[in-house]
Amino acid sequence: MTTQNENTIQLNEQGLSLSAGYITVYHIDPQTREYIGNTREYLMEGVGIPAHSFIDTPPAAQSGQAIVRSQDGLSWENVADYRGQTAYDKQTGQSSLVSQLGDLSDTLTLLPPATAYDIWQNDGWVTDAKAQQAAQVSAAQQQLAGYLAQAEKRLTVLQYAVELDMATEQETQALKDWKTYLVLLNRVDVSGAPAIDWPTMPA
User: Which InterPro entries match (predicted)?
Assistant: First the structure.
């Protein structure tokens, strides 16, 4: 007795059915040749199976792999499948989403860099400490410039109040506090960034 999944027909050397009946065919994506599923097809005598289909059963896909038809169309193959994963350019560290089947290019890795200053050496990322330190010093210099500008702006207003004999007791004390703060700011050494002991800004 023939079961529902058994083929009831055979194909000749030209791929045409020798008789009418059912056959299971396995379909591939015409662009990537990836196996995408199977269907039961009813063929009339002398009719071939649908395009981009085969009658030999594909193997089970292994973890991290996909099943594709070989380039010559004669067999099934397991190929690496990193689609949906993030890959990183070894030269720039720039990330991209893998969208194609197959092994990664030699210029890519799935290992993420730990910092924006990592460079690829041998088989892994290594942080360029000098570049990282230079960037941190530059950021600290900008931060210091911002603090200085804010202090000088505040001091200008308070100084006007004192010069015009309009300063309150609180403003007179604030002027002293901001002057002290400005002096301490100018003594800050940003070369040790990011470990900087910033003076406390007056209220």
Answer: Phage_T4_Gp38_tail_assem, TFA_Chaperone
In one-letter notation, the amino acid at residue 193 is A
Taking a C-beta distance cutoff of 8 angstroms, is the pair 95, 87 a contact? Answer: yes
Write out pLDDT tens, residues 83-95. Answer: 999 999 999 999 9
Q: How far is CA 137 from the centre of its chain?
A: 28
Diameter of the chain measured on Cα atoms: 112
- Give this prediction's pTM: 0.69
Mean pLDDT calculated for residue range 16-44: 95
Structure tokens at 22: 């059912």
Q: Which long-range contacts (CB under 8 A, 24 or more apart) does 7-10 make?
A: 7/55, 9/43
CA dist., res. 168 & res. 198, Å (int): 28
* Burial annotation 93-106 (CB, 10 A radius, 16+ → b, else e): beeeebeebeeeee
Q: What is the identity of the amino acid at 168?
A: T
pLDDT at 7: 72
Nearest to 188 by CA among 203, 201, 175, 172: 201
Phi-psi category of 55—alpha, beta or left, where left has phi over 0 and alpha has psi -120 to 50?
alpha
Q: Is the dihedral of CA 52, 53, 59, 62 positive or negative?
A: positive
Element (H, E) at 89: strand 86-89
